[in-house]
């Protein structure tokens, strides 16, 4: 029996060796398959990464455009507030003029001011001295010149 037992043991070993060899082959095949599958996953990840990059670029483009729009709107708001303040000043001036019109003495002063400033009219017996060397002289430039003189040109008698 010793010999028979030895033969049985040898058969078991041989079968175990075959089993181990087949097991090793199966494991190697699995490793090969695993090596091949990540390439496919890598391609899928590349498509995902491409979509992600496109999304990020779109988001950045949209954010940049919106900040430009906001800045433009801020500039427009600042301009409109300046226009509003100018209109309020003019409205206040017109209200003061309306108040002056209701008072006879103030009305006459207002008419005189308009006649002197806008139409270059003078009072009777008034002598006008014109400085030809002065660049901002209204009388030299003509009626309708917008800058106001300091009053040095007109001297009352």
From TrEMBL:
What is the taxonomic lineage of the source species? Bacteria, Bacillati, Bacillota, Tissierellia, Sedimentibacter
Determine if Coiled coil is one of this entry's keywords: yes
Q: Return the protein name.
A: Cell division protein FtsB
Q: Which InterPro entries match?
A: FtsL/DivIC
List UniProt keywords, sorted A-Z. Answer: Cell cycle, Cell division, Coiled coil, Membrane, Transmembrane, Transmembrane helix
Q: Which Pfam families match?
A: DivIC
Q: Which GO terms describe its biological process?
A: cell division
Coiled-coil stretches are 70-104
> Which parts of the chain span the membrane according to its record?
45-64
């Amino acid at each position: 029996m010793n010999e028979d037992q030895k033969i049985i043991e040898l058969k078991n070993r041989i079968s175990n060796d075959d089993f181990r060899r087949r097991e090793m082959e199966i494991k190697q095949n699995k490793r090969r398959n695993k090596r091949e599958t990540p390439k496919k996953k890598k391609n899928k990840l590349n498509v995902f990464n491409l979509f992600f990059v496109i999304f990020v670029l779109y988001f950045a483009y949209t954010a940049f455009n919106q900040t430009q729009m906001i800045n433009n709107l801020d500039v427009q708001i600042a301009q409109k507030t300046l226009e509003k303040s100018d209109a309020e000043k003019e409205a206040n001036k017109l209200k003061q003029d309306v108040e002056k019109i209701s008072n006879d003495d103030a009305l006459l002063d207002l008419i005189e001011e308009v006649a002197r400033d806008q139409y270059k009219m003078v009072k009777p017996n008034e002598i006008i001295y014109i400085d030809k060397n002065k660049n901002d002289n209204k009388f030299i430039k003509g009626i309708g010149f917008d800058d106001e003189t300091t009053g040095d040109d007109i001297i009352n008698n």
